[in-house]
Amino acid sequence: MSTKRLAVVCNYVLRPDRIGGMDRFFVAYDRAVKAKGYDVDWFFPDLHELDFYTDVNVFSAEGNLSVEAFFLKHLQEKGKLYTALVTHFTELCTPFYKKAKQAGMIKTVIAVDHNPRPLNGFPIKKRLKNRLKGYLNHKATDRFIGVSSYTARHIVKDLGKVVARKTGVIYNGIDTSVFKKRKSNDQKLEGKVQFVVVSHLRESKGLQDLIDALSMLKPEVQNELHITVYGEGPLEDGLKQQAIDKAVDHLLTFRGSSSEIPKILADYEYLIQPTYMECFSLSILESLSANVPVITTTVGGNPEIIRDGANGFLFSAKDKMKLSLILTDIVAGDLKINEDTSILIENEYSLDRMVAEHINLLD
């Protein structure tokens, strides 16, 4: 029997209609950790029946407790001991880490930060609270990992220099084999230029700016493009009404969530992501893997992957006029991407590389 035990605590809801990049990472990581001789238990806030996770030992809080509180309760009731604890999408430097380390007799605690920061930074009260949390609780966490250089910098900025020496970067990666690849970099000679959005529909994703940008386009430009939106969220009804109010609803089709994104992306010419907050977007990696260039903002880790004019186009968040100009120039053929955007992803942002670097943290 293995003497090494790993607990992975993820504040991430598993859903049958969303098998995305993180789901593929979790399953691949589980397989790789077991190959290293670990028994692995996974803890999620909620779980729907998912064939994708059949071989993963999952415990679900079923929405009754936070995943952190559920894990602490599990330690108390089951009396399990773990060699290591890894967290994803959880708040950093809370008392949870110390409590878990003590209750589970855990030797190594690794906190992976996927959480974006507000466009204008945290308010001063939140900044002071973060710094105090860092001072009081940092010793319980052995490694802090950001999913981009931007994220790692902000971990130190938020929590203080006390965490700098144990903060590092592991970039997100994706399974490039599941993505259908767009064959041509040329704009379609006939028909409209097809753009796609893959996003949760909430204010921080900036889709309201895209609708305003569409309303700024001249009619002859509007007639030459169409945008399909995949995703759902609290802003969906508001976005649809905004599009009607701005008289651009005929330019948009809302398709809801889809588990077929890896096959669908190649049907489009550009992905649009007008986001205000981002760490290191899996949607961007997935689009580039499908050889679909990306139009996005300069926030977070976006400039670490998008090279303006090479594999996409960048604009400042909330700059609706700039976005409208980019769309106009693409439709006119004055802006275009000539390189195969998938090569960079295959070489530097693969799922295998991401898994291997996370496994190395356990050694």
From TrEMBL:
One Pfam assignment: Glycos_transf_1
GO molecular function, one term: glycosyltransferase activity
Cross-referenced Gene3D superfamilies: Glycogen Phosphorylase B
Domain Glycosyl transferase family: 186-333
Domain Glycosyltransferase subfamily 4-like N-terminal: 19-177
Keywords tagged on the record: Transferase
InterPro entries cross-referenced by the UniProt entry: Glyco_trans_1, Glyco_trans_4-like_N
Protein name: Glycosyltransferase involved in cell wall biosynthesis
